[in-house]
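# step 3/5: fold
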Amino acid sequence: MAGDGITLIVGDEELLVERAIGDVVASARADDPETEVIDLVPGELEPGKLAELTSPSLFGGGKVLVLRSAQDLGKDLTAEVLAYAKDPADDVALVAVHHGGAKGKALVDGLAKAGARKVSCPKVTKVGERIDFVRNEVRRAGDRISPDGARMLLDAVGNDLRELAGACGQLVADTGGRIDDAAGARYYPGRA
């Protein structure tokens, strides 16, 4: 499996974290549609479990292991993850999701040192960041929108990223890929 090896997702913007995990899963399943996805939280992971989950299967097939709330892994489990990162299995993509901050920093530093691909998913809190998000969402859906159009959409829909992402996709679909300020005003009049 040409999985993504080890991916470190740092941040707590839920939509962006889920997308980053989805990208790893999609990449693994592009190579092997039968790839198994195993979602774990620290309470479900006891010492030795990682070695068990990353060992080759008798039936073959790849795996994506998603370690959520990795900042909450204890010292022993962090050491186990870092030891695995030095010699990862070819058919396993390991995704460690860390909320950021100082807690569990040894894991972040160790995975970075081991060459993990890092994806940042910080909270989108500033107006300018949300406008950039809207513009990127529209671009992702195959169109473009002006900064003023993005601001108007933000004013109409509100600050929730999931709602904004849905509105952007819907706007591109409804306009046939021709978004201008007038189209935005027509589909999303008023304020949130």
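# step 4/5: annotate
The chain has a mean pLDDT of 88.
# step 5/5: archive (pending)
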